[in-house]
Amino acid sequence: MSNSRRRSWAEPYKIKMVEPLKMTTREERERAIREAGYNTFLLKSEDVYIDLLTDSGTSAMSDRQWAGMMLGDEAYAGSRNFYHLEAAVREIYGYKHLVPTHQGRAAEHILSKILIKPGDVVPGNMYFTTTRLHQELAGGTFVDVIIDEAHDPASEHPFKGDVDLARLREVIDEVGADKIPYVCIATAVNMAGGQPISLANLRAVRALCDSHGIRIIHDATRVAENAYFIKEREPGCADMSIAEIVRALCDLTDGCTMSAKKDALVNIGGFLALNDDDLFDAARNLVVVYEGLHTYGGMAGRDMEAVAIGLHESVHYDHIKARVGQVKYLGEKLQGYGVPIVVPIGSHGVFLDAKAFLPHLDQDVYPAQTLAAELYLDSGLRAMERGNVSAGRDPETGLNRRPRLELVRLTIPRRVYTQAHLDVTAESVAEVFDHRDGIKGLSMVYEPPQLRFFQARFEPLG
Ligand SMILES: *Cc1c(COP(=O)(O)O)cnc(C)c1O
């Protein structure tokens, strides 16, 4: 028996500073969610117990990062922290030139402006909201070339972030290489649920792009998380370090946009990195228009120092194993309770399948929105709807889009919560699951014209 005794695992850090959480009663939560129009985006953070709304900018910085903040050189030009960040980007990602920005979408903005002409086409492995919007604002059209499995919540494909090479070849043949300024490759594809691309697939994309003279730009926001899955799953990669895999991924691309609010473990920051000297010149000219001088680009010196240190921490094996491991822990616990979730469990959150959770609700009474509100009522847990409300209306018919995926996202901030918080989370979801038959839907009583999920208001049915 003793040979098979379970050995526990714990987070690879200890707590030096605490932020007290407010505990609320059921009555207080009923009032709070009613006042928020049953929309978790409209809750006050203070009324939330465990906040799994997003992992963007919500990470806990390390003692080293905080120490780095004290070394901020707040010179307008040539801050020493810029050179530290530049060195970190060169060492870890291998890109030659750095253009700092205030966050990821600012890097996307500048990149889109320098590379995309009206009428261009940008193929990519699934869209991301801000990335696609900037491509469109520059006059481009995004074309999804991710494999079909990425759209199926039940497919266990190990690399659901892979590109469908036949589809990409078709797009190149249809529109011509001169209309494709670059192929956009995301690592740990966010909108697919944090699903990785394999090194083998990216190598094949590189070969195809090389034969047509097309660039590859990398959305590196979650590259370390992707590298962890490659180490775990891809044949021949088990003995590579996370840093080696990250470098191998980046070396197959010509530059990157980065939201430092994810992998890099800071609360604000981002950058654009490029290998080409002329493109770098163009980007550096634009960053002074939209962000700030090219040696700070919207970040304080102390912020750049924290990003530089966070980039190094992001490729530590113990860190990334624990980060992805927490997500896996929560996901497996929920599977143990029979709760329907998207598989394989992704890099940054667990996605509840609200259609399977609440099969008696029609999509137009918003099962995922309803479930997110019920979770808050049960325990003060805050999640995010990713379904019919987020998808909005079809501009042609004016009807709800009723997307295939009707999900509630439980996103795990990095280094913020303990395994005990995840236990409380899983138990709360299980409790709501036990009482799912009695749950009625919501009707939308206020609907903003754009990005309605942020500010829409609802009332309970029945
Ligand atoms: C968050 C995110 C972005 C946008 O970055 P911001 O810092 O929020 O502007 C772009 N791509 C991916 C994959 C992201 O997760």
List the helices and strands and how they pair.
Layout: H1 26-35, E1 50-51, H2 63-69, H3 80-92, E2 97-101, H4 104-115, E3 121-124, H5 129-137, E4 141-144, H6 165-175, E5 182-186, H7 199-212, E6 215-219, H8 223-233, H9 242-251, E7 255-259, E8 270-274, H10 277-290, H11 301-314, H12 317-336, E9 349-353, H13 354-357, H14 367-379, E10 381-382, E11 384-386, H15 388-391, E12 407-411, H16 419-434, E13 442-446, E14 457-460
Parallel strand pairs: 1-10, 3-4, 5-6, 6-7
Antiparallel strand pairs: 2-8, 7-8, 9-12, 11-12, 13-14
Helix pairs in contact: 1-14, 2-11, 3-11, 4-5, 4-10, 8-9, 12-16, 14-16
Residues 56, 103-105, 128, 130-131, 186, 190, 219, 221, 259, 261-262, 270 line the site of pyridoxal-5'-phosphate (PLP).
CATH homologous superfamily of the largest domain?
Answer: Type I PLP-dependent aspartate aminotransferase-like (Major domain)
Q: What is the CATH fold-level name of the largest domain? A: Aspartate Aminotransferase, domain 2
Q: What number of structural domains do the residues give?
A: 2
**What is the tally of beta strands?**
14
Strand content: 5-15%
Distance between the termini: 54 Å
Count of individual helical segments? 16
Structural class: alpha/beta
- The level 1 CATH classification of the largest domain is Alpha Beta
In the predicted model, the low-confidence regions spanning at least 5 consecutive residues are: none
Using only CA atoms, what is the Rg? 22 Å
Mean pLDDT: 96
In percent, how helical is the residue content?
Answer: 25-40%
